[in-house]
Amino acid sequence: MLPIILLSVFGIGLLFLGFMKSRAVLLPAALFFLLVTLAVNFLDWNKNYLYFNDMMRTDNLSMVFTAIVLGSAFLVIALSGSFMESEEAQPAEYYALILFSLVGAVMMITFENLIMLFVGVEILSVAMYVLTGSDKRNLRSNEAALKYFLMGAFTTGIMLFGMALLYGATGSFTVAGIGAYAANPQAGLSLLLYVGFLMLLIGLLFKVSAAPFHFWTPDVYDGAPTVFTAFMSTVVKTAGFAALFRLLYVSFDGVYSFWWTILAIITAITLVIGNITAAYQNSFKRMMAYSSISHAGYLLIGLAALGAQTKQAIVFYSLAYSVATISAFGVLLLVAQQRSSQTLSRESTSAESFDSFNGLARQNPMLGFAMTVSMLSLAGIPLTAGFWGKFYMFSTAVERGQIWLLVVAVLMSAVGIYYYFRVIIAMYFRNGATEPIRVAPFYQYILLIATILTLGLGIAPGLLQGLF
Amino acid sequence: MLTLFLILFPVVAATLILIIRGERIKQLALVAALVELVLAGYVFWKFRPDTSSQFGFDYPWINSMGIRLSAGIDGISILLVLLTGLLVPFIVLSTFNRSYKQPATFYALMLYMQAALIGVFTARDGFLFYFFFEAALIPIYFLAAMWGGENRIPVTFKFFVYTIFGSLFMLLALVYLYYQTPATNVSAHSAAIVDLYKLKLTPGAQNWVFWAFFIAFAIKMPVFPFHTWQPDTYVESPTPATMLLAGIMLKMGVYGLIRFILPIVPLGVETWGKTAIVLAVIGIIYGAIIAIRQRDMKRLIAYSSFSHVGLMAAGVFSQTETGMQGALVQMLAHGINVVGLFFVADIIFSRTNTRQLDQLGGITQSTPKLTVYFMIMLLGSVALPLTNGFIGEFLLLHGVFTYNHYLGLAAGFTIIFGAVYMLRMFQKSMFGPTSSRTQSFADLTTSESWVFIPLVVMVFWIGIYPHTFLKVTEPAVANLMKYIGTTAVSMK
Q: Which residue of B64, B146, B152 is in closest CB contact with A465?
């Protein structure tokens, strides 16, 4: 509960700091605020509280998810420095919006009452619509914002309708209340429960960009400024999966036999569409958009095979995915910015293609290494966190005996290796621009932290265990 | 504890090399590899020939899931550990007359590779095995793709995706097996290989687990029809990487067959073993026939290696004690021979700038040393009695022949075909009139000779007194055979 209050206060504080002449204070201030929130988040450790008349629940799991979200935001903001230096950027507003959207994310993670879930989704989404369109002069950014807003508003409507139907069926808005009602499917459940549940599910699946509700993802991720793409593809996804997990695990475990096939089919479609389409992209950023769809698919495996292992699998996977994705986008941000200024082309798309990574590892071994590690992690190669993420996910499905789904996942992992390695090949084995990319020392430290985290979790995955 | 040291020492040495860099990197790498060789030799010396796992270590890794960092050396691992320790220093030494750009990275990757290989051969936990199995791929991929030939990027990429694809199925099978294991007092399941041995799977499960493992290992070895990555990768890789691939890495596949497939899914082997042997025998003959037609030396050796490994796979699947023993000894022997032959090809290429047989010839005139060493390596490879190849191939053929006479007969062609393509290569490159390219061919330098001398010693040692090596593996193999016999019966 404290994180929500603190983030709101800090967000307003950042807006006021924006009145100051110096922009330089904003970035450290935002990072400091996030660190404070992160520390305060753990005050309730090992306590299970219900806040605000059963509106929200904090437990260890929600605190870990909150920490992942805050940590991701920290990394994204830390890597945003060069983007904020441009004349047109308005860092105070951006940082404030990020903090506000984190309020929404935390509410999605800790909700006990469905109304809180709705409010959380809306707070997060509205902030994201604005941030997506923040590159005002760029046509693609505007298009992305409009597309995201229209489709997002539409699905939020569906979600709200689903909640209303659930209330009609169960007479309760709390996850525990719905769970108590749905726990005995033999007694004969109202049809409204199933319809409402599916509508709610569709709304959340839209947010985490699972197929067939993914159509907005490539355009929005591609059109938004890279910093906010990194934020969207990690924070929104983690929060969405935390919400999905809580709903499915607490409320709808009783009707598992009803929804697991639906979810498993969605998972398979998501995996296939995400991976196959990603393999055809020429723009790195667009590839990452499709790759984020495919990772939604891997995360869904754990939900479709909901069981004792799922919790751990989802936490580990979202952490591994977030860290790797942010560090990949961090490198892209630098590369795209400096390569486009080097070639003096105003067209930003060409700077985001695979070709702009050519020879990067030779000019900037550090950037090349950070990128390689995050690509290996996303591809799920051992020694990186991503491998254990996939391992845990596959374990959940094996425990439920969903072998056919795993075969799809395995085949698609092989496709994934193909497109992630295109970047590595470009960086190490192709010749490209000869000018090295300038990297600020602080930026390097942040990338180094992300890399060490990925490798550390890859070698000792047990570190995260016993935490929750 | 020695096993831990064997795995960690190359990692530490490689990291130091990356930090130090500088002029004397080659020497440093050589010293590190020699220290590892001494360790491996000491382990071999001290190894008690019985069925136990020795020099091991065992630490918790992912405690709540019962996955442990556990490795040790038993009769099946010992020769492969020795092979890994033995070959790497000479592979390093074979690069002394070459210069590779970014030498620190180059040698560090080789040592990382060595650590991962030792890990594969010693792991006692299924997931640790998988971990090293994949980890070995990353250094070799970079070695091949950064220092390889012109066409290296697509070729090594194919190699990488192909092998990862295979091992993902193995991961699936491992996770499945893991969930079949009963609870231990610490956790709900266990991934220790000995616990996997105790599983009694249904025949249906055995069949698909067999294929999941078999595809992974068959791609690695490679067995027909999963070999299409191999010739190109061997040719395009820089020679040291080819030596690592052919000398040690393909043994991971054969080792996997012995370690996982035979004891865990005996009924699967009963059902599908014959198919596997037939595929292997097809590979033997197919590889040999293609090798006869090759003009490029490196490609010829690549196909010969494909042919030879088919025989090892067939010997393992014959499920006889001689076949298994033969496979273990032949892995050692083949590693030595193939490294020697690739080195010859590399030496010839570095002096004439060609590997095409019809552009070579007449090299013997000025090179007594090279001729002798080349001949010895070649005779080992064609399995002449008193050389190492004879012992391995004889045992393997005996095993396959016991299993099925016709298949044994077909596999026996490997010796005849082997003699044909190997002697043809020797004749075309070494004898005949000198060509413009081979006119001023200089004989071996000292460092080059020192690569061959130990390999030649090993060729004769294994060929004349194989008992040294057979006796260490015998109890373990006998135990495994007994175990397979009893479990297969009890599962029916």
A: B64
